[in-house]
Amino acid sequence: MIMTQASALGDKLSARSPFLDQIVVFTGKLASIGHREAYAVVERQGGLACDQVTSRTTILVIGAGVAGVARGKSNKLRKAEVINTRSPGSIQILSEDEFCHLAALQSSELLNQLYHNLSQIRSRYPRIREAQLRYLEKCGLLQPVARTHTDTYYSFSDVSVLKQIHDELEQNGSFHGSVRRRLAAREGQLALNFSAARGAVPAAKVVALRRREATKVTISLPSVPEQGGEKMALAVRLFLEGSELDEGSEQDRERALIAYRKALLLDPTLVPAIVNLANLHYAHDDLVEAQALYSRALLLDSSCFEAHFNLGNIHHDLGRLQEAMTYYDGALQLNPKYADGHFYAAVTLEKMGRSEEAKEHWRLYQELAPNGEWFDLAKEFSE
Known about the structure:
The protein folds into 3 domains: 6-111, Rossmann fold (3-Layer(aba) Sandwich), CATH 3.40.50; 115-185, Multidrug-efflux Transporter Regulator, Chain: A, Domain 2; 229-382, Tetratricopeptide repeat domain (Serine Threonine Protein Phosphatase 5, Tetratricopeptide repeat, Alpha Horseshoe), CATH 1.25.40.10. Helix content is 54%, strand content 6%. The chain has helices spanning 6-12, 35-44, 75-86, 96-102, 108-114, 118-124, 130-138, 156-170, 175-185, 229-245, 250-266, 271-283, 287-300, 305-317, 321-334, 339-351, 355-368, 375-382, and strands at residues 23-27, 48-50, 59-62, 92-95, 116-117, 146-147, 152-154. The longest helix is centred in the middle third of the chain and has 17 residues, at 229-245. Residues 1-15, 66-71, 187-200 and 207-227 have low confidence and may be disordered.
């Protein structure tokens, strides 16, 4: 008989981490998380996760894929029961749900009670394929509330969207037409769920200092006069130091911020340092400072396409769509082969209700980024 003693174990380990000094073994397939993640949970809470049941084992967790005698006992469970026969209570035997409760994790059992899982969605709305579910997530029309090792869970609002689309499909409606109508219904805005971070595309960064070539759009470095050359050379070194750091850890980004500021104290006209410093402010949602710095860069070098593009992103984020398009157009005039520029121009035009104008940018994005993250989306909207 399988004994479930989560409450007793919780009392026994009260005022301590639930798995502190415990030796935990898992048997069967876990539904809520993978075995590797489960091991990490135990070890973070001061326990030790092992592969085999021994006389030192204190907890055995039975995965949701194993339900005792009904499905046949695992060898680990049999061994734990033998040990408990010889020394009663040596090994606490817990269900996966009880393990999740102790570890403060959402179990698959609880999620199934609260939400709609993928199997239910497939059964209820058979006309919507799994690939279309992923597409709806990418468009931001579906936002699953949880994902486990084996399943995906949807809220009522997601189910409501799926029902409407499914009903239209049953009436021989177009899937993509249905998607378009729902996106347009959001106050005329294309609400794409690009990423959790600010902006779908990272701010354009200056990664090198070189003189502008006819076929490349890079920020040119002014010639260094002999007088004061050492000072400018130090500014360049500080810029390069910042460039190496500004995509690292939070501490690295702080060091990059200092390096760029020092570079600009030595050479206030060093446009690459201004742009990358602005990027750091943009990443921290300091849009006012970022906008001021990008604008300063354009005053010094009106051909700085990175500043044009990033100013477009700021105006886009603030809902100033016409201003955003002005800057995206400027960036694309300088660098017509910049795929992200075409992508954002297309998104902005869609939001402005100018879908026909957007099609050319969708087409160019496909041409320039055949392996891009948004290729499929661009293909659909360009038709």
